[in-house]
Each structure stands twice: as structure tokens, then as C-alpha cells.
Amino acid sequence: MRTPDDLTALFRANQLKVTPQRLAVFEALHGDDTHPTAEVVHARVRERMPTVSLRTVYQALNDLVDLGEVRAVSVDNGAVRFDPNNSGHDHFVCRDCGRVSDVTASRPRLVAATGGEVLDEGYTVDTSEIIFRGRCAACNA
Amino acid sequence: MRTPDDLTALFRANQLKVTPQRLAVFEALHGDDTHPTAEVVHARVRERMPTVSLRTVYQALNDLVDLGEVRAVSVDNGAVRFDPNNSGHDHFVCRDCGRVSDVTASRPRLVAATGGEVLDEGYTVDTSEIIFRGRCAACNA
DNA sequence: ACACAATCAACAAGCTTTGTTGACTACCTC
DNA sequence: GAGGTAGTCAACAAAGCTTGTTGATTGTGT
């Protein structure tokens, strides 16, 4: 994710206004690699702006997702997690502590539809996301 | 997924009773490759057993997931989809029609944590699931 | 400064999923 | 086969996450 200053410019370039609340969301996410939920971001923002509503945080996060600056990750069927790291990477979810870590993996190749049809014909693959599940080093120790 | 008869035996072997409602869920899922939501399964079961509740369908589906006979797939953050195909495969989600298809892909290798730490040390990877996104042949045509 | 468009906070509702309840039913043992 | 027990049944309600709506307010470009 870019710096809050860059995001400010990006928002303005996209006709989105940069309010103090949005700026606080930018700052709360910057450099974060813990894949927080909207609720966690909300709590973090509230430490410095106690009146911000969860709704406003969702709006800012969704705008960031729409602009491609933040990835929305559905790891279980609970709350969506927001990932400000938009470089190509995948995720590892620990079965014990539930923590989501950024990982690098080899790109998988799509071979064929399970029915047997060849996929070259007409299919377009835009993205692939991988979720590894297992136990992290801390929980294995 | 096994046949309804096999599932009946499996449920009994696990001290789970096989009620007519559960059997109807088995039959509704058997051979299905459309990754239905619980609601869709419910509607299908209701065609022949109009009194079955959505709650009961969820119970049967969750039991199947717990026994490893059905996979729960979170493709977006909407309803969970249930996949009776428990052989190793991945999923392709069409951006246009939303359909989820079974696909075969090369297994990705987990290389490293993005921080740089080597993952061999202490990490245990149990499973990896891949979601490809793009446009299917039908929607490209 | 002004006008306009957009966001704000608060409330409430939507959607998916699970907890709870008393009645009922399948299964195991005899 | 019959009875006892454990587990399931359907209906209701509620929990958790996310989004719609509202009137008031605010930022932005001119």
C-alpha cells in the first residue's frame, strides 16, 4: 500500500474526498501485515478519533479495495480481512492461532477442467489466490 | 462423494443417525458439481420433503464436512458453497456469471514467508486451496 | 465566499449461520 | 420385537458481519 499522502492524492484523482476519518484509516493500515478485520481497524482508528463509526471505516476500506490498493481476503467465513500489501503474494492460515501470514509461493498452472475439457479454449484467468493451511512455527514449538 | 448408501453406513459408523431428511440431503448432493449453497440444497430437498427446515440441512451439511465427505468453499464473502467432490482439485470462479467450476492445477510450492524467514523451520502445511478468477468460456463467447 | 457533490454518524435492516427448545424418532440391547 | 436412551427434528430467535438509508455536515473547485 502506498503512503497516506499518496493515497490522499489517489483519492482526489478519483473524485473521492479525503476526510480526516479516511486519513485515519489510511494511517491505521499503513505498514500493517496482520490482516485486520474492519472491526480491528475501527478500534485502532477510534483510539485517536473516538467518534468514527464502523460504517465509515467500511466505506474507506471498500474504496481502497475498489482502487486496488488493498486486498480483501476471505479466509474463513467470518469477517473479511484487509491486506494493504498488494504485491503478489499468498496466505498461510494457522489452524491453531488463526493468524494469517503473507507467504510467497510458486504460481500454480491451471491444467484442465475436472470434466476433462481443455481450458485454453475460451477461458481467461485473471488472478489466482492460494491459501495454505497448517500450523505456524510458533504453534508447533 | 460416496453414494447415499455408503454415507448411510458411514454416518452410522460415526454414531450419527440417518434420518429421512439427512438421506434427502445425501441424494440432493450426489453427483452435483454446481457447488450449491445451503439454501439451494434446502430448496432441492424441499421439492420432495416440503417440511424440512434450513437448520436441518445445515446440520447435515456440516456433518458431511466434519466427516471429510464434502468440502466447504468460501469463494466470496457470501454464503458458503458445498462441494461433494472431495478429490484433489481447485476452483475457477467466473467474474461474470459467478459460476464455480472444478479445475485441476499444478500444486503450488510454498517458498518463504514474505518477511524472508525460511518456512522449513517449524511450519507444517496441511492443505493448499487455489481459487482462479477470470472469465469462463461461455461468458467469453 | 459559494454551490454542489459527497461524506458523516446513527439507526436499522439484510444475509448467513448457529443456539435453544420441547417433541419426536432411530438405533441398540435385550 | 419392545423399550430405553441418545440424538435429531422443526420452529423460533438471536448472533455476527455488512450494507442501505437518512438528514445534517463537510470538502472541493470556481
Walk me through this protein's architecture.
The structure is a homodimer of 141-residue chains. Chain A has helices at 4-13, 20-29, 38-46, 54-66, 137-140, and strands at residues 71-73, 81-83, 90-94, 100-105, 110-113, 124-135. Chain A is an alpha+beta fold and 141 residues long. Chain A folds into two domains: 4-83, Winged helix-like DNA-binding domain superfamily/Winged helix DNA-binding domain (Arc Repressor Mutant, subunit A, Orthogonal Bundle); 88-141, 2-Layer Sandwich (Dna Ligase, domain 1). The two termini of chain A are 32 Å apart. The mean pLDDT of chain A is 87. Chains A and B meet through strand 4, strand 5, strand 6 and helix 5 of A and strand 4, strand 5, strand 6 and helix 5 of B. Strand 4 of chain A pairs antiparallel with strand 5 (110-113) of chain B, so a sheet runs across the interface. Chain A binds a DNA duplex (30 and 30 nucleotides) through helix 4.
CATH architecture of the largest domain in chain A: Orthogonal Bundle
Pick out the low-confidence regions of chain A: none
Shape of chain A: globular
Helical segment tally of chain A? 5
Largest interface: A-B, 48 and 48 residues
Content of β-strand of chain A: 15-25%
Q: In CATH, what is the homologous superfamily of the largest domain in chain A?
A: Winged helix-like DNA-binding domain superfamily/Winged helix DNA-binding domain
CATH topology of the largest domain in chain A: Arc Repressor Mutant, subunit A
